[in-house]
Design a protein that fits this description.
Strand content: 15-25%
Radius of gyration: 13 Å
Number of strands: 4
Distance between the termini: 15 Å
């Protein structure tokens, strides 16, 4: 799923007040963490995931792996938080129309 700039800005605005629902621990990205992220995306559509590492390359690799495994879209990566979006069947979030 590709999002337009306008749609990403809209989702960033919605995500601003969200707290991270998944926190990666010392074990990093495990099957259990991926399952929890997948479950949270199915329930909320828009979530924040906290990736507590100072190495930018590692952080990007983790977020890319999450996006690849869950089918989500990386809306924003700011600090230690990644904002992820995946539309569910209920379509809880109405995105602006793509032009």
């Amino acid at each position: 799923m590709n999002l337009t700039t306008k749609q990403k800005q809209y989702l960033k605005g919605l995500a601003h007040n969200l707290k991270p629902v998944v926190l990666l621990g010392a074990n990093g990205l495990t099957e259990g963490v991926l399952a929890e992220i997948d479950n949270a995306l199915s329930h909320h559509e828009l979530i924040k995931v906290k990736v507590p590492t100072t190495d930018r390359e590692v952080k990007l690799a983790i977020v890319d792996a999450i996006v690849r495994e869950t089918g989500a879209v990386n809306v924003q990566l700011i600090g230690h938080n990644a904002v992820l979006y995946r539309q569910s069947e209920e379509m809880k979030i109405a995105l602006p129309k793509a032009r």
